[in-house]
Specification:
Barwin-like endoglucanases, three-stranded parallel beta sheet, six-stranded mixed β-barrel, alpha/beta, Rossmann fold
Length: about 350
């Protein structure tokens, strides 16, 4: 996406950005508004593109994965409509488009609701529960009180803490599979190695369980047969609810969470070369200089962060690229997993 925008800009397109962090980009920007996510609608209204030809409004990951996602989408949709522009929402996750096309969407409760309204049993598939949920504390507490069957690539510590049964499955590089890219093209992958020990491709484990349970649709014996039985499905998606946070409205700093580039899934988290890459910065919190001063913390120091679910201690970085009133963290780290939404209060450790 970055490369496509860069090419468009070099051909004369004007790029306007609205973000809670002034992220580094390799193209010229016509304007940049650095504001909290709650002020995106107002910032959009200040951008003049009424004379633009073939305009497009792109909604990216920071917006889509925030607790303000629905409000931002509505603002972006209204802005696009008012300016005769197209709206482009970027699917989040390597196979999000393919899964949604096949009906893997919440028709009753979304993931947050399944955890908030506790179930007696859960099946988690390819998830590290200590890192991959938006509300880590809620997820771990709810799963710990239920029966949990985990289809797991690595059986990490958090999986072992909540699972009653762990079924080993192969990671994506070890299995035959398909991914649907952002253009809707299905891309097929072949195994790059053998699954270790007792691990099997996840679809094989599901097939065996489905056959033993006598469930219809599990009579295939190979990957091609499984693919043949799949079909596109339209699902009426259930409405979700914004998470609730105990800190009073307006108290503390608003969390801005972005995905650390090499901490997005269990496989890359275990790639030593990627973890040693300069872009893997480690768990930290980044504050605007004025907010850091008000909190009594400084660059290269350590801060105590408190939110609705507890406290954490993180190294501090200070940058005027972060909007006033915001605190920027990256997901994918155990130290930041409980800080990915809501407001936080910050003080000296």
């Amino acid at each position: 996406l970055h490369q496509r925008i860069r090419k468009a800009q070099r051909k004369g397109a004007r790029v306007h950005m609205v973000n809670p962090v002034d992220f580094d980009v390799a193209f010229e920007v016509a304007s940049s508004a650095v504001v909290p996510l709650t002020e995106v609608a107002e910032a959009l209204a200040d951008i003049d593109i009424k004379d633009a030809q073939r305009a497009v409004v792109i909604v990216g990951a920071v917006a889509e994965l925030s607790e303000h996602a629905s409000a931002i989408r509505a603002a972006a949709r209204g802005f696009a409509s008012a300016n005769n522009a197209k709206l482009c929402r970027i699917p989040q996750g390597a196979n999000a488009l393919g899964l949604s096309q096949h009906g893997v969407l919440p028709a009753s409760r979304d993931a947050q609701a399944m955890l908030a309204d506790a179930r007696s049993a859960y099946v988690i598939y390819g998830i590290e529960p200590g890192l991959d949920f938006a509300d880590q504390a809620l997820a771990m507490n709810t799963l710990a009180r239920a029966q949990v069957v985990a289809f797991s690539h690595y059986a990490c510590e958090s999986t072992r803490a909540v699972a009653d049964v762990i079924l080993p499955i192969g990671a994506l590089p070890e299995i035959e599979g398909s991914l649907t890219n952002l253009d809707g093209h299905v891309q097929h992958a072949t195994p790059g190695g053998k699954t270790p020990a007792e691990a099997r491709a996840g679809w094989r484990v599901l097939r065996a369980l489905g056959a033993d349970l006598g469930v219809a649709g599990f009579d295939f014996t190979d990957y091609a047969g499984m693919r043949k039985g799949l079909s596109l499905r339209n699902v009426t998606v259930a409405k979700g609810a914004a998470p609730k946070h105990a800190l009073p409205h307006g108290a503390g700093l608003a969390i801005v969470a972005s995905q650390a580039i090499y901490r997005t899934d269990a496989t890359v988290r275990r790639a030593a070369a990627l973890q040693a890459h300069p872009l893997t910065l480690g768990a930290r919190i980044v504050l605007h200089p004025m907010d850091a001063g008000a909190a009594g913390v400084h660059a290269d120091g350590v801060a105590k962060i408190k939110n609705a679910t507890g406290t954490a201690t993180l190294p501090v970085a200070v940058s005027d690229k972060v909007a006033r009133g915001c605190a920027w963290v990256e997901s994918g780290y155990g130290a930041t997993a409980a800080l990915l939404s809501g407001n936080v209060e910050i003080g000296r450790a």
